[in-house]
Each structure stands twice: as C-alpha cells, then as structure tokens.
Amino acid sequence: MSVTRLARTTLLAALLAGTATIAARASGPDSLPPLDVVLAPHASGGIVDRMGVTLRIGQPAVKAGEALLRMPLTLVSTPTARYDTAAITAQDDKGALILTAVEEEPTPTGVYRQWTVERDTVGDVTVRYAGPPRPVNAETRNGPLFDLRAEAGGVIGAGVYFYALPTRKEPYRIALKWDLSSMPAGSRGIWSLGEGAQETVGPADMLAFSFYAAGPVKSLPADGKGDYGFYWLSQPPFDPEALAVKTEKLYHYMSRFFEDEGAPYRIFMRANPYPAGGGTALAKSFMFGYGSDGNTIAEGPDMLLAHEMAHNWPKLNGEEDHAETSWYTEGTAEYYAAILALRAGIIDHDKFLSVINAHALSYYGNPYRTLSNKAAGEKYWSDARAQKIPYGRGFLYLIQVDTQMRAASGGKRSLDDLVLEVLRRQRAGEKIGNAQWVEMVVRELGPDAKAAFDAMVAGQPLVMPKASFAPCYQAVPTVTQAFELGFDEMRLGVVKNLRPGTAAAKAGVQEDDTILSMTALKLLRADPSLPMVLRVRRNGQEQTITYLPRGEEAPAYRWERVAGTKDAACKL
Predict the structure, then answer these.
(1) Domain containing 521: what range?
(2) What integer best gives the mean pLDDT of the chain?
(3) Most buried pick, 57, 168, 250, 422, via CB within 10 A?
(4) Sheet of 211-215: strands edge to edge?
(5) CATH of the domain at 416
(6) What is the pLDDT of residues 196-212, one digit of tens each?
C-alpha cells in the first residue's frame, strides 16, 4: 500500500532544497566564518540511541539577549529532537555560556525555538548536544522525511530533526566530519554532499535541510565515489541495485537536459514500519521510504524517484508565497518526471500513458479542484487532498502551454524552451516569479495566455487540447469518481480524521479503529470498481468492513493512444 504522491515531497522542502543547492555550489572567500561540525552517532546493543553534535561557530559576535541557536520543534507535522535548555552546552573564549530557550510564535509550517545568550559572546563558540532518533511504529503518521530514525544497526534521516544551528543567514565555510568510534567496525557516514569528511560553502540551514546516514550502509557504487550514490540500510523486498542503476541513468539524462551535467546527487532509502511510502527532496539529494509491504507510490518507485530528481531544477524564485508558485514546482516535476523518463527509455509508452492519466484523473476528481492556488495553500497542512492540487493543476496547465506553443511555432518551440529559459535566467541572477512567467507565455502565445494563466490560478476548469501529446495520443472527455479513502491517508495504522458522509463512514468505519489490513491503495486507485476490504480492531474485537472508496462523479479528461501510430513517431 502507499500514500498519495503528496508524501513524496513537501512543498517547503522543495523551496529550501533550491536555496541550499545554489549555496552549496558557490565558492566563498576565505573571509567567511567557519562552521565546523562533528557528528557522532552512538550505538548501544546494536541500536543507535543518539546522534551527538559538536559545532564550532567562528566568532559569531552574538550580543547579550540575542539568539545564538535555532531549531524547529515541529515542522509540517513532524516532531524533532526538541532539545530543552539543559541538553545544550555552549562555551566561548571566556568560558561557559548560559542559554535561555525562547519559543517563537507558531507559523503554518512549524514551531521554532531559539536559544539566547546571557552575555556577549567572545571569540569562537563551541556547542554540544545529542538527541535520540525518533521512535516510530505502525501508527506513526506518514509525512515529510524530516525525522531521524534508527534502522538495521544504523541511523538515517534529515538534519532538521537533530540540529540546533546558528541563526546567521549568510554563508559559512562548512567543514563536516564523522566520529564513528561509538559505532560498529566498518560503519560509514554519508551526508547529502558526500561520504566522510566534507567541506563546502553555504548557510547553516544547508546542514538542516539535507540527509544523513551512518552505520552498516550499503550503496551503489559500493565505494560511494562519483557524482551519483544510492544508499540503504535494510534490504528491501525489491532489488535496490536494479533500481539504483535505472535511477542513475535517468539522473544523468535529466542533468544533461537541464544543462547541469556532472552535478552530484545522492539517494537515500529507508523502511517504514507502516504500510505507506513517499519521499522528500532536499539539497542535491532525496530520501524515500517504502512501506512494510515494499510499496512506495501507486506509479512505482521509478516514478517516485523521477519526480524527486526533477525537483533539482525547475522552480520559481520570485517573491510570492510558495502556495502561489507550487503549481510550477510540482507541475514541472510531474511533467518532466514522465516526459524525461520516457525519452530516456526508463519507461515505455504504456507506462507513460498510465502515469499521465493517473495524474489527470486524480486532479479532476479532487474535491478542492475549484479552490484558487492561494486558498488551496491555506489547507496544505490540514488536508492532504489540498496538497495534491498543485501537482495536477500545474501538470495540466503546462500541457496546455506545450500544446499551444507547438501549434503556434509549427513544432519548432515547446514547453522545454520556456523551462530552460527560466533556469538560464535564474542562473544569471534573475528572480523569476509568476509575473515573469506570464510575460514569457504572452510573448509566445499572445495576450490570451495571461487570461489562461489567471484562470488556472483561480481554479477554473482546465480543458485539455485534443492534440496534447500528439501525434501518438489524444485527449478525450470522460468522467471520473475521485478516490476517497474516507480518512487520513498519511496514517494507515489507525483511522484518524474520519470524514463524515464518506463511504467509509457510512459503512461503519470509526475514528481510532486500529487497521490490521487493507486493500492496497494502488490497486484501489487503478480500479474504480474495486472495493476496499478493511480489517480493523475496535474495543478488542476484530471486524471486516467493505466499501467502495469513491466520491462523487466529476467531468475529466484522459488520454488514449491514437490507432495506428508507432512509438518511433511519438516525439514528446
């Protein structure tokens, strides 16, 4: 079973990943202050019980009452190590520093804590703390992979879970080392930027929004060298090496297409103790989790990885809120995951057709499809269905633009030209937001392109041109019944947030039912007539509940193969 595509990357993560990546590739002057990091995972009885952190912050010059460190306590529903003041020690050239914890006002994406100093800091400051990995079980809510977990004698997860970092926003000269003396012999330490000791230039947040793995880590290539790496601790119920080889081929194809050949990239994989998968993209890397039955997402791990890799490149970097630009971030990731996987030979035309139809039908059946981008964004962290909106909406809108550009230019220009132009201008230092995008499409297609963009932003119906994906495919009107599980799809060990009036509620599913087994969600999504067979435990008694997990019918579009066309003619 798998959760929706939403779990594979969070909107916030995609935004931060872009910032960290740009900074990581910069080369700052020697005048930048150092930030030296030593990570010391500790294993007891073969299980990692804490991640030790030592930071040496070069002359931070923090004044009395100002914040030295900051970390989230909760980030988009994911709890962190949440250190109290006693868990952190700090010392400068004058001696011990007294820290005071200060809570920030909550934001829609998280709750943060700062640590202020009682006196002015003198010289360099050394900070030490250690936090345990997050305990998880079958009832843990699936979500962004921002936590750190113990697994198979090692530890794996994101830095934002265990780091309290300097508040300075400007870059540091970062030097990261591993102390594996409290780990079993042969243990390895890997960061998103490489294995073992690493040096780079970037803000402190780069450390938080990247991934880490330590212990008996397996990898392809085995020595972890080169511009690509695939890492895991537990042996999954599928062939990780075959997946790694396929993913490497696609990554190199994508990096050439986006004019970024040779850029490093690393993939981390971990097991979930619940029947759900998903993933999160961070700095030049991503991590995905597979469910207790080995599943990731309905389209399979290859498309999960394709989507996450595409997040390395297309994004808007204007001044708008992310909810207003996520149509582009997620839409381009969906579009190029499918298109480039097909061009690279990673998937065939049958798989391509199933992927694009799944994207379209999921969007047209979404109950929030009529919300504006901003209104959908306000519901992102309270309802997973709202989080899906930018994926499908951006994907379908970009297909419209591509089809119109090909028609207007006689096949000489396409969406590729606009997306690559955005990247080139951003690399030259420009800020490209919605306004600049509209200027570009109006230049290509005329003033009607602005009206089409505004309609998309407002949540008006997206009509698919019949000639989209021509000559091999054509869009045809249809009707869809939205998949509706009836409760929180991000927590599949227990029923939470049961929605009144759904088929699940009418069939007798109740809040807090313990889920013992259920029909695989990927099968239910693929077959609108397939019933959900849900076995639950309630008040010590087991029972089986059957219902059709579908909502109301809605008008939609889907693609079908044009009879008689050959694969060689499909120049998508």
Answers:
(1) 485-548
(2) 91
(3) 57
(4) 148-151, 154-158, 211-215, 188-191, 194-195
(5) 1.10.390.10
(6) 999 999 999 999 999 99
Q: Say yes or no: 533 and 441 in one domain.
A: no
Q: What is the pLDDT of residues 89-145, one digit of tens each?
A: 999 999 999 999 999 999 878 899 999 999 999 999 999 999 999 999 988 888 889
Please state, in angstroms and rounded to a whole number, the distance separating the CA atoms of residues 37 and 55.
5
Task: Give domain status of residue 565, yes or no.
Answer: no
My answer on whether 447 and 504 are in the same domain is no
Say how many domains are in the chain: 3
Do 495 and 477 form a contact (C-beta atoms < 8 A)?
Answer: no
Tell me if 13 is assigned to some domain: yes
Number of CB atoms found within 10 A of residue 243's CB: 20
Report the CATH number at residue 489: 2.30.42.10
* Residue 490 and residue 459 share a domain: no
* Amino acid letter, 17: A
Distance of alpha carbon 365 from alpha carbon 382, whole angstroms: 19
CA distances from 542 to 509, 516, 563 (A): 12, 9, 50
Q: pLDDT tens-digit profile of 240-274?
A: 999 999 999 999 999 999 999 988 899 999 999 88
Same domain, 224 and 341: no
In a domain, residue 415? The reply is yes
- The candidate with the shortest Cα–Cα distance to 513, out of 505, 524, 521, is 505
Burial class of 233 by CB neighbour count within 10 A (0 to 12, 13 to 18, 19+) = buried
Is residue 117 within 8 A of residue 99, CB to CB? The reply is yes
**Rounded Cα–Cα distance for residues 395 and 388 (Å):** 11
| 332 & 277 share domain | no
- This prediction has a pTM of 0.79
Q: Are residues 462 and 529 in the same domain?
A: no
**Closest among 385, 388, 391 to 497, alpha carbons compared:** 385
Helix axes 448-458, 434-445, angle to 10 degrees: 140
Torsions phi, psi of 306, nearest 5?
A: -60, -45
105 φ, ψ (degrees, to nearest 5) = -65, 135
Residue 178 lies in a domain: yes
- Same domain for 142 and 246? yes
Indicate whether 11 and 64 sit together in one domain: yes
Sorted by sequence, the CB contacts under 8 Å of residue 225 that are 6+ apart come out as none
Phi/psi for 410 (5° steps) reads 65, 30
